[in-house]
Amino acid sequence: MNAMGLIFTNDASLGELTNKRTMASLPFGGRYRQVDFALSNLSCAGIKHIGIISRHSYQSLMNHVGDGEEWGLELEEGGLEFLTPFAHSTVGTYRGKLESIANAMDFLEYGDEEDYVVMIDSAVLCNIDLNKVIEAHIASGKDVTVVAKKLPCNGEKKVDLGLAVENGEITEMVVDYDADGKYIPSMDIFVVGKKWLIQSVKALAARDKFHMDRDLVMGGWRKGLVTVNVYEHEGAALFNESVEEYFNNSLSLIDKDVRADLFGANHPIYTKVRDRVPTYYGVNSEVEDCLVADGCMLDGEVENSILFRQVTVEKDAEVEDCIIMNDTVIGEGAKLKYAILDKNVTVSAGAKLYGTKKSPVYIKRGETV
């Protein structure tokens, strides 16, 4: 497909989890980062000209992605580019996606090879065949195609963009609203014509409009200036837009059906290779219903949890319903339930950490408790 890709990294915040990293570089699933899903979806669709738009805290993201070798992007002309503020003469805090695109216009206007642009946010994880989405966009003849999850809104969570659809046509839109079951939520994946996007962004920027959902999609549609197509995604879509959602979606990977849909439905999900020795299971260890990455040392009890690389659980320790990131040590006799431990955390022997399913306790990177 003659398309280019834009990945947005900073639009959502998960409190302390994303204080010093972008949403895109947030660890997920034992060995991945959230950006891996967007990069894999684009690369596996043959889209090799990709820009990653990031405003701040992007060092760990750049270290992870590198030159894009794991996603087959390093050998492509004009392949992968980080569109960070220091790369542009005009810098500032982006008020919305349209303003960030306007600040990266040189990248968007470079070359005449692509006719379409696929824009993806990093907060919603899925495994999707983007070639089918682009084909549906072309067949529709409309200005914008919005990918939405084929699942009604619950009336409790505020959605970025909610779409009411009847017989394949959009009948109503809402933005930043606790939408009810009449609506399905956007997955923050958009397909548009490249020339149309450039013209639209310039026109809206001149009028101090900066919001993708409100100003370009819903605003244009309500005025009859923008035609909008909806592509309803039937596979898994994990919305990691709050700490509670991140926690529950992480643990949902223990379900083999969710894993199969997210990691193998259309194509593999690639990530940076970090080979480690196999995990060691001590003679007294008990591990049940867990995802365990390589390099771990397990001598305690672990249940219904996600363990990233090189986690140590010492003897008599008990870990249940937890997310434990790289290089963390759980001391002898410690007890953890409903907790998220960032990288390089040390839990002292005998310590106790208890959260709740709706409010898991979070320990910052490098801390000792």
The proportion of residues in beta strands is 25-35%
The level of helicity is 10-25%
Instruction: Give a count of the beta strands, DSSP E runs of length 2 or more.
Output: 26
Oligomerization status of the protein chains:
single chain
Contiguous helical run count: 9
Radius of gyration: 21 Å
Q: Let me know the largest β-sheet.
A: 9 strands, mixed
What structural class do the secondary elements suggest?
alpha/beta
Low-confidence stretches: 87-91
Distance between the termini: 51 Å
Outline type = elongated
Overall average residue pLDDT? 91
Task: Summarize the entry for a quick read.
The chain is of the alpha/beta class. It contains 9 helices and 26 strands. The protein has helices at 35-44, 59-65, 97-103, 105-109, 130-140, 194-205, 212-222, 243-252, 256-264; strands spanning 3-8, 27-28, 32-33, 50-53, 80-83, 116-121, 124-126, 144-149, 159-166, 169-177, 184-193, 228-233, 237-239, 280-281, 286-288, 291-292, 297-298, 301-303, 306-307, 312-313, 318-324, 329-330, 335-341, 346-347, 352-354, 361-363.
